[in-house]
Amino acid sequence: MMRRSASLMAAALLVGGVLLAGCTGTPAPATPKPSPSSTALTAKDVAQKIDGTELSTASLAHVDGTVTSAGKQIKVRIDVEEVRALRDSTMLTWRLSSTSGRQEDVASFQFAVAPDLDTRNIALVVDGGDRALRPYTYRYQNVPGRGSVCLCATITGTDGTGLQLTALMPPLPDEAKRVDVSMPGFELMKAVPVTR
């Protein structure tokens, strides 16, 4: 009788163990897959693109003009230093300098849409003028009332040596060897070479 009780107890423990193992051995939840978009960039991706880029200082094209800031017309020069085509984006590097050589306040809505003082209205013109690529913008989730943020520079002041600025834009067509660069209020800089 003792032998049968021990056998029944062992069988009950074995069945209980199998049942418990089945209940506690649920598979881990699946890892979310990245966005299927070929141009989806995370904040970390963007930071690495900008941080890992050696910025040119050579001028590929330039234009002289004026920026309206605080009711004053300030004479400036804009130099395009590089248009770099990347697999999933385009990095525009340019320089804004005062022609007087003095420090000037050039904070202006000329390059942006109020209330932002960034440079979201600059553009790369492609496809024979049929398409304009502008800097990426995004909105913070769960931050009510916050406007869009641009992956482009904000301008406050510059001097004769100039302020080097960047903008991250959508990718250029594969066949694009040259683009036109549009800066609001300035003549179009045509046929600027693209670096790949």
Can you describe what's shown?
- This protein is an alpha+beta fold and 196 residues long.
- It is built from 2 helices and 12 strands; from the N terminus they run H-H-E-E-E-E-E-E-E-E-E-E-E-E.
Provide a brief overview of the structure.
The chain has 196 residues and is α+β, with helices and mostly antiparallel strands.
Describe the structure using short key phrases.
single chain; 196 residues; alpha+beta; 4-stranded antiparallel sheet; disordered N terminus
Q: Got a strand count?
A: 12
Give the overall average pLDDT.
Answer: 78
Could you give the order of the helices and strands? Answer: HHEEEEEEEEEEEE
* Count of helix runs: 2
How much helicity do the residues have? 10-25%
Helix/strand class: alpha+beta
Q: Which strand order does the major sheet show?
A: 1-2-3-10
Radius of gyration, taken over Cα atoms and rounded to an integer in Å: 29 Å
Terminus-to-terminus distance = 86 Å
Low-confidence stretches: 1-38
Strand content: 25-35%
What summary fits the major beta sheet? 4 strands, antiparallel
What is the general shape? Answer: globular
Per-chain topology:
Layout: H1 2-24, H2 43-51, E1 61-69, E2 72-85, E3 90-98, E4 104-105, E5 123-126, E6 131-133, E7 137-138, E8 149-150, E9 157-158, E10 163-169, E11 178-182, E12 189-193
Antiparallel strand pairs: 1-2, 2-3, 3-10, 4-9, 5-6, 5-11, 7-8, 11-12
